[in-house]
Amino acid sequence: MWGFQGKAETLSYWSVDSPEAGGVGILIFPEYHHSVSPWKDHLWTARRIGVTLGQLRVLNVYAPASNKPRREVFFTQLQDWDLTSTENLVLAGDFNCVEVPVLDRLGGLRQLKTESEVLTRNTRTWDILDARALMGSALSELELSPMEHFTYWQGNYASRIDRFYVASSCASWVQWVSVHLPRMPSDHEEVQLHLREPSAKPTRPHQLKVQYPIVGGNPERLVQEVLQELYGQAGSAEPDWDEWVEHCKSVIVKISRRDKQRRQGISQRLTRQLQENATTRQQLLTAFILKD
């Protein structure tokens, strides 16, 4: 909430679609925000978005799911990005199809050929490689469990429809590809691509200092006071988002002022006690001097 108090750096880029379709986004770690900028944002749609990250060009896509003709049109339209001449390209996202069903689907009937002729033709034209294939093409080669390979599960059926492709120019940058449980509710697993430029020297990223809205010595109590204020004034109907944000800001200001007054009162009381103790000490010293 305290991001509204001042100018904040851009830490995400979004292209939003209808509630049924969702959209795509790219989130950025704060220490790398200065290296990221929009890439060909005039070509952004609800299903594709691109950014420049240092020497990399990152394109995030969300292909149509159930309609193969629409999906093939989508992959054809990616040619507008002129990716043939793009070096250090990383193409990532939910492709809603696989190129090697024998390896990348589990259960059911699995065909031998690619599920998208256009995507396979594009990857060859753009000279991009499946990052997982750079590590090995089969589960037995990598000694991976199915949970570490497939990214989308439906009962006993699974597939690897969420993938990373990297240009051959930066294939040597690929260190590892890992699959994890999602950090927030999702029907897809989280896929991580680990890259490292071979010629780059290890650097220690600059950690940005977080400015918290309330400074206090008892954060647990402050959290409880904020929650009590929010819960106590919450209505039965779903609030408007902007109104809710304004309400949260006013509650934070209220709690902050109350805590500041409380800390000032404690400080004044301690100062008064110290002054009284100092007077008593001076009186004792005077008595000792007179006695001597």
TrEMBL record:
Residues 18-188 form the Endonuclease/exonuclease/phosphatase domain. Coiled coil: none annotated. The keyword Transport does not apply. Keywords: Nucleotidyltransferase, RNA-directed DNA polymerase, Transferase. The keyword Oxidoreductase does not apply. Gene3D superfamilies: Endonuclease/exonuclease/phosphatase. GO terms for molecular function: RNA-directed DNA polymerase activity. It comes from the Eukaryota. This is Reverse transcriptase. It comes from Phytophthora megakarya. The lineage of its organism: Eukaryota, Sar, Stramenopiles, Oomycota, Peronosporomycetes.
